[in-house]
Amino acid sequence: MADTEQGYDPKVQVKETGPQVHTLELLSTDAELKGSSFQRGIAVLGRVFGIVSGVEARGIERVADDERQAPAPNTYTRIFLLWLSSALTGNNIIVGLYGPSLYGLDWSQATICATLGVILGISILTWFIATLGVHLFQFYTRYAWIIQILTLAIMIGSAGPSFITSPFLSPDIPRATVSDRLSFFSLCFASAITWAPASADYFVYFPTATKSWRMFLAGSTGMSLAMALTTILGIGLATGIDSNQAWIEASLASPGSLLAASFSNLHGFGRFCAVILLLGTVSNNIPCTYSAGLNLQMLGRYGPRIPRPLLTTLEVVIYTVCAIVAREYLREIMENFLPLMSYWIVAWLALCLEEAWIFRRGRDYDWAIWNNPNRLPMGLAAGASFVFGILGAVLGMSQSYFVGPIANALPQKCDLGMWLAFGFTAVVYPAFRCAELRVVGR
């Protein structure tokens, strides 16, 4: 994690403007504000925006202990509900559709792969919550799950009778192979593990005395229940497509149309439920958008000077335009882009795990040096290992646009990119890191 924070100016400090509003200033040794007119203007804009609106303007800077929330009885319940609400959304149902429709798995095969993949991915990402670990968002997630789970329960009642839970879907569909099971398992794992890099962003205001193991249980339970439920619902919808003409036509239009068709038995009320299910994806978009603003601030030493709300607004405009333009290609995007994201995330994951348990041996980070590049690792070992990990991903990937030589050499094509990316990175990082420590000393 420290490698990603290299490059920050040690003179960027936090200036208090109120109990919950924080902005960034570039301070010189004589406490005079320096920089270009644009930089000063951005800093002033951030302060004014935070004071007038009350919106959290804090960026990537460390939250001091005296600014954190006091311990409360519902702390771990809030963690549980945040992840439950974030994953109990329609887009995770779409992941489940691909088990029967893309890989030819029946109900039991797809359900086992999905549940195991989701739980494994969630367990790993919540390790980051417990180890590293937004006021309005947290308030929203305390209650959003109620509406979302009621809507999903209505979907089960409406569409459940059409689910085919028999061992084999149809004699016309080829039997699923081991490679199909592994590919779908990897897809479900990828849908969960993609939360890992951002998983600590939402609990920075929690007290430092928060128990890691309780955070792990709360986070993993909430996310696992939500993602397992929604993915299995998607599997059920996919198994019933061939026996329902309306579902066939809807699935040819888009995955979203299939979700709406699952409520068709309820007529007007069903259309209302479909709208509620669609609006529920807000719970999934909020944390992603929040974290993306922090990620943009980490791109360079000047990033923290741009207010996070301004970056967030820019992101929303960009991804809204992209969503409108690409709305007809959601299936292709989910099939191709989700595994691609998992390649770099598992390589990053291998770096973090080995740094934490081999070189730091479970010891905490020195958070006081988070923005001091002279004391942080240079990232040479991490960068070189990451390149090896991506090489492994390229060799083992099996996508519609490219099949790696290792995947192509298998009797049955299977996407091994994620597993090879993790393996290649994990093998070379210890040697590279030892060399970096010996030569550089940090």
Automatic annotation (TrEMBL):
Q: Which Pfam families match?
A: Transp_cyt_pur (PF02133)
Location in the cell: Membrane
Q: How does it sit in the membrane?
A: Multi-pass membrane protein
Regions that span the bilayer: 79-101, 107-131, 143-164, 184-204, 216-238, 310-329, 341-359, 380-404, 416-432
Query: Per the record's keyword annotation, is Membrane included, yes or no?
Result: yes
Supply one GO CC term from the record. Answer: fungal-type vacuole membrane
Keywords recorded for this protein, A-Z: Membrane, Transmembrane, Transmembrane helix, Transport
> Recorded GO terms, molecular function?
transmembrane transporter activity
Q: Which family does the entry's similarity section mention?
A: Belongs to the purine-cytosine permease (2.A.39) family.
Q: What is this protein called?
A: Permease for cytosine/purines, uracil, thiamine, allantoin-domain-containing protein
Record lineage = Eukaryota, Fungi, Dikarya, Ascomycota, Pezizomycotina
